[in-house]
Specification:
Length: about 100
Amino acid sequence: MVARLEGSARKQALTGLKGWKEAADRDALVKDFRFADFNRAFAFMTQIALKAERMDHHPEWSNVYNRVSVVLSTHDCGGVSERDIEMARFIDTLAA
């Protein structure tokens, strides 16, 4: 089972993430992205989907034209885990 990040380990893991916020209504990380157009937003989501399949760790997300909203939480542990941190870092690399 995957361990939920708590205490100093969680604080340290979150320190390295830029723009990600803790969700107000549950134990999750959230971030919104904007792109030049729908094609770039969809390409971004496609790259995340491929990584998510390899990790067997899938984000919750929504897309409206050039905007993508991402929510990361590990359902197996009921909150944020190291898997979410890894995925957030990957997503930020793509968006850069």
